[in-house]
């Protein structure tokens, strides 16, 4: 028996492979296009970020270069909130930087640097806090000596802390220091008007310290005598110097290039009032008439003849003699090494007065900045 299910139905499937192929090609094209667009966008993002990275690198370079090439004479003499401009370029010339160093207080500075890429207008700005690392002078008396010391005449040594007239931003006064500090009290001789040490005010008047040695006079913490000389911004040959006075440039600013301009301690608000140079004399020095401030380094003997005032720290490798004239005055502290162990004679009319403010300014004259130990910089916007 045959069963009939009706006529067979034939399905027409011609052309399906073409449709699948076209759909696959479209999908593959979309994937390729997507990858291409992603690569293009990433490339463009890289190109756009490159100038920004160059600008940031320039700002970092400018920050490091500013601290490494610190201008002691200019920046350490800035008043509070005073500023000094900074500008330069990276070694390859791919970017530049500019900004300002601004003093916040006696020790802290804000270094504000903006880097700019030479490609496009990208720029990045960072700021850093730098702190001065002051030199550490072993000053425990108004006068420290290592050799035989003779004081006579009208000499006066006062270890009471004095504030220089009109000087701003001085710290609070300290307790009196010793008048004279030397290894052996037997090396000290009083003559004439200073008999019995009557010309000395200090606590004590005389301090015998057998620990005094070369480091007392020639080691200063992060620096020594040789390093301190390299920081000198005024190097002079030995000789007799008279009429040491501040001088002005044509634009009214302090002319720091003048050999006999050692600052202006008696007029602290004048253009040279904030100029505290490190003055190094390569041999014997004789001074007569004038004023100065900062650090005075004398390789040989120092002779002060008359009408000369100095504010700061005086370091003498040889003998200190003040044997003639009147009106001589040193405000700060004196370290007289007396290397040859010759007599150190302080006679005539001379006042040596201790001043913590003058000592601090002299220390800062040779101080170099360093970043704070914690993260010292931040990106500025």
Short account of what is shown:
This protein has 381 residues and is α/β, with parallel strands linked by helices. It contains five helices and 22 strands. The termini are far apart.
General form: elongated
Question: How many distinct domains?
Answer: 2
List low-confidence stretches: none
Sheet of most strands = 13 strands, parallel
* Number of helical regions: 5
Give the beta-strand count. Answer: 22
How far is the N terminus from the C terminus?
97 Å
Mean pLDDT across residues = 84
Percent of residues in helices: 10-25%
Radius of gyration: 36 Å
Order of helices and strands: HHEEEEEEEEEEEHHEEEEEEEEEHEE
* Protein structure class: alpha/beta
Beta fraction of the residues? 25-35%
């Amino acid at each position: 028996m045959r069963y009939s299910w009706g006529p067979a139905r034939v399905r027409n499937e011609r052309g399906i492979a073409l449709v699948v192929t076209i759909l696959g090609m479209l999908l593959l094209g979309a994937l390729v296009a997507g990858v291409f667009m992603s690569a293009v966008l990433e490339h463009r993002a890289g190109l756009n970020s490159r100038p920004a990275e160059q600008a940031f690198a320039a700002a970092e370079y400018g920050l490091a270069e500013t601290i490494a090439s610190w201008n002691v004479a200019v920046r350490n003499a800035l008043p509070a909130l005073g500023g000094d401009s900074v500008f330069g370029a990276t070694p390859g010339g791919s970017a530049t930087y500019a900004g300002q160093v601004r003093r916040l207080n006696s020790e802290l500075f804000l270094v504000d640097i903006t880097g700019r890429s030479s490609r496009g207008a990208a720029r990045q700005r960072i700021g850093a806090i730098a702190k001065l690392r002051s030199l550490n002078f072993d000053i425990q008396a108004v006068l420290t000596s290592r050799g035989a010391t003779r004081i006579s005449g009208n000499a006066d040594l006062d270890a009471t802390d004095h504030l220089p007239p009109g000087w701003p931003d001085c710290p609070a006064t300290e307790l009196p220091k010793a008048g004279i500090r030397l290894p052996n009290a037997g090396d000290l001789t009083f003559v004439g008007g200073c008999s019995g040490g009557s010309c000395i005010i200090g606590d004590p008047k005389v301090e015998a310290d057998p620990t005094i040695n070369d480091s007392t006079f020639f080691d200063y913490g992060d620096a020594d005598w040789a390093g301190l000389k390299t920081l000198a911004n005024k190097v002079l040959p030995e000789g007799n110097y008279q009429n040491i006075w501040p001088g002005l440039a044509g634009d009214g600013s302090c002319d720091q290039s003048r050999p006999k301009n050692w600052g202006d301690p008696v007029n602290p608000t004048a253009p040279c009032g904030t100029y505290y140079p490190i003055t190094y004399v390569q041999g014997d020095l004789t001074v007569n008439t004038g004023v100065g401030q900062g650090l005075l380094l004398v390789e040989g003997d120092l002779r002060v003849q008359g009408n000369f005032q100095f504010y700061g720290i005086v370091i003498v490798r040889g003998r200190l003699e003040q044997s003639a004239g009147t009106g001589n005055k040193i405000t700060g502290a004196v370290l007289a090494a007396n290397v040859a162990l010759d007599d150190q004679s302080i006679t005539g009319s001379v006042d040596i007065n201790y001043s913590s403010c003058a000592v601090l300014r002299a220390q800062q004259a040779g101080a170099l900045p360093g970043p704070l130990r914690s993260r010292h910089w931040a990106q500025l916007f």
